[in-house]
Structure formats: C-alpha cells, structure tokens
Amino acid sequence: MKTKVKVVVEKGTDGSYSCYTDHDFKTFSPAGYGTSVEEAKADFEEAYQEMRDIEAEEGRKAPEIEIEWRYDIQSFFNCFAYLKISNIAKKAGMNASLVRQYASGCAKASEKQYAKLREAIKKVAKELDEATL
Fold it and tell me: Where are the alpha helices (DSSP H) in 1-133?
C-alpha cells in the first residue's frame, strides 16, 4: 500500500523553486530544487528514488509513496502556465490584475484569497474531469 505524502512546491526569493515534505520518513527527508517547477519536482522524485536505493542497500524498506503536490500561487501558475489567470480570477470572483500580482510575486495573497483561488481551481478541475471529446 502506498503512503500519501503532501509535497509543497514553492518559489523562493531567489527565483528558484523547491519541493519539500514534512512527512516523517524516519531516516531520510527528500527535497527537490530547480529553476522551474518541473525541474524541482523531477529533482524531488530523483532524491526520493536515491533514498529508496540507499535504504534497500542498508536492508531497510522505504515506503512507496503517492505524492499530493501542493503549490504556492507562483508555483501553480508556473506549472500550469496554459491556464489563463484572467479566467481563474473570474471564476474566483477576483480582480485579474491582483491575481497576476500574486502569480508574479509582487503581492502576497491572504488565506481568504488563497481559499477563493483553491475553490476556482477545483471547479476548473471538476469541469475538465467531466468533459469528453
């Protein structure tokens, strides 16, 4: 059985991206870094695999994981750049210019604003899940 692990993806003040988890792996803690979200995620997955290999060499079994990616706003719009910020903002009932500021890092969203964006993104995901071609 796989263990569900939440991995946070964040944009740093230096413009790079990082992935980390607070899951207790006991003997290791994987992390990933890169100049894009994709690079950071790939680095995280590589670090996790390397640690699984080390655990196996030392006679221990590392858990198999299922990753739930959690993004800050900048990382989300970097990873899913094909989503139009103006459309997400409209679904959230927010000003598109303000959401662009959140996405660029010029402004920081409050928890209330994060919640609005989360709900709008869930709606989009549900709509896409229900659509067929």
Answer: 37-57, 73-79, 85-92, 96-104, 111-130
**What is the rounded CA–CA span in Å between residue 131 and residue 133?**
7
Q: Could you give the CA distance from residue 62 to residue 74 in angstroms, rounded to a whole number? A: 32
Distance from C-alpha of 2 to C-alpha of 43, rounded to nearest angstrom: 20
In angstroms, rounded to a whole number, what is the distance separating the alpha carbons of residues 58 and 10?
32
Cβ atoms of residues 9 and 40 within 8 Å: yes
Give the pTM. 0.85
pLDDT value at residue 116: 96
Identity of residue 125: A
Q: What is the DSSP letter of 63?
A: P
Of the candidates 26, 21, 118, 124, the residue with the CA atom closest to the CA atom of residue 72: 118
Give per-residue pLDDT as tens, 61-80: 888 999 999 999 999 999 99
First to last CA, the chain: 34
The pLDDT score that the predictor gives to residue 133 is: 85
